[in-house]
Specification:
Length: 216
């Protein structure tokens, strides 16, 4: 099994997940800034053309960060980052989906169409006119989550899960591309301190991050 990765918040989430699990595996690096991920041979193996991907021992390539998380969790259940019971798994998946649909997808699209437009205009249809609204929608989602984080250590409650990893990678990235965390969101601020204290927070940052001036 091999992780195909590179700079970026989604590959960082995969690196973070592996660190939390204590899983070591070979890695191939793809240059996402140069667009190597959109060219053959990688794009033929993962037609979504994005990172990360997991190459299985039988040669299959699994894309989509959450699909990779779920596969690895089945193979390496401890420590659980999705959950060890059907109820825990349902909760983690519920929060993961809320975080992605209400916050991180808007944040990432605002980057692709805005600050990242030069990188992305040749890769996908970009909607520069939507940037301000997308940033606001990400902030709306964060304000909603802030209210729900009152009295909770982690997004799903008492357990650190994939929802925390996904949001932390997006917010750390966002802060370097014109989408800072609103300091008035106090519960989110407390959660942020918790999540930053995990060794994998820094341990998952790609070596190229400092050079490109973004956290991923
Ligand atoms: N839906 C995908 C999104 C992955 C994604 O956006 N990856 C970024 C890196 S953070 C990427 O490959 N960007 C370069 C590109 O889209 O060309 C997932 O969840 O894994």
């Amino acid at each position: 099994m091999k992780l195909i990765e590179g700079f970026g918040p989604n590959p960082r989430a995969a690196r973070w997940f592996l660190l939390e699990k204590g899983i070591d595996m070979p890695r191939d690096q793809i240059d996402v800034v140069a667009g190597e991920n959109r060219q053959p041979p990688y794009a033929e193996r993962n037609p979504a053309g994005q990172l990360p991907a997991l190459e299985l021992d039988d040669g299959r390539v699994i894309g989509e960060t959450v699909a990779i998380f779920e596969y690895l969790e089945e193979r390496h259940p401890e420590p659980p980052l999705v959950g060890s019971t059907p109820e825990e798994r349902a909760e983690a998946r519920m929060w993961q989906r809320r975080v992605e649909l209400n916050i991180t997808e808007h944040l990432y699209n605002a980057f692709r169409y805005g600050e990242g437009h030069g990188l992305f205009e040749s890769r996908m249809r970009c909607l520069p006119e939507a940037v301000d609204g997308l940033k606001q929608k990400a902030q709306d989602g964060l304000r909603w989550l802030d209210g729900l984080l009152a009295g909770k250590d982690w997004i799903a409650g008492e357990r650190f899960t994939i929802a925390d990893i996904i949001l932390a990678c997006a917010l750390d990235f966002g802060a370097t591309v014109g989408q800072p965390i609103d300091p008035s969101l106090e519960n989110l601020g407390q959660w942020w301190q918790h999540v930053r204290a995990r060794p994998a927070f820094e341990g998952s940052v790609h070596p190229a991050a400092a050079g490109v001036g973004m956290r991923g």
